[in-house]
Amino acid sequence: MSRIIAGVAGGLPLNSVPGNGTRPTTDRVKEALFSRLESYGVLEGAEVLDLFAGSGALGLEAGSRGAAAVTLVDLETKAVLACQKNAALLKESAPRVRVSVQRSKVNAFLERSAGAAWDLVFLDPPYPLTEDELAHVLTLLSAQLAEGAVVVVERSSRSPEPAWPAALERFAEKKYGETVLWFAEPA
């Protein structure tokens, strides 16, 4: 069972997405990820975007740890329903956090939200998403980042490194068994 690990909602169990189309981020990876993000000072008061959100666990963890607003985006109905339930659970522990759940294709959402300035973005796309499709998402996203923003891409450790657009620069990579995290910032 997925849960929020730390912050004001630490220990809160989250609803998972029914079926087998999503891969929840393990607690081990999530704890390491958020320890790193806290060391970067990017969480407090952040505007967070969680693309391909699944259950919304990453975005909601950020909300529990001090983010001001979290937007969860997924197209699958079961994922959106899980996000909505989990967002309501977070609101009970952290009413100050603004949480929005968007049922949308990621590209369409990014095209509609032109002019946004995200501080922290999580991308945990489904493995069948091609590298070209991921590169296109990163290109759309790169114009919507605040100064000092951090982008985290989670993929299979067998996946190649994403093709970063010129406006994004990878600054770190960390492997955890079958999972790899890439960290990028505006160039």
Automatic annotation (TrEMBL):
Signal peptide stretch: none
MF (Gene Ontology): 16S rRNA (guanine(966)-N(2))-methyltransferase activity
InterPro entries cross-referenced by the UniProt entry: DNA_methylase_N6_adenine_CS (IPR002052), RNA_MeTrfase_RsmD (IPR004398), SAM-dependent_MTases_sf (IPR029063)
UniProt key word Hydrolase: no
Alphabetized Pfam families for the sequence: Cons_hypoth95
Matches recorded under SUPFAM superfamilies: S-adenosyl-L-methionine-dependent methyltransferases
Coiled coil: none
UniProt KW Mitochondrion keyword: no
Enzyme Commission number(s) of this protein: 2.1.1.171
Keywords, ordered alphabetically: Methyltransferase, Transferase
NCBIfam families: 16S rRNA (guanine(966)-N(2))-methyltransferase RsmD
Protein name: 16S rRNA (Guanine(966)-N(2))-methyltransferase RsmD
Organism annotation: Arthrobacter horti
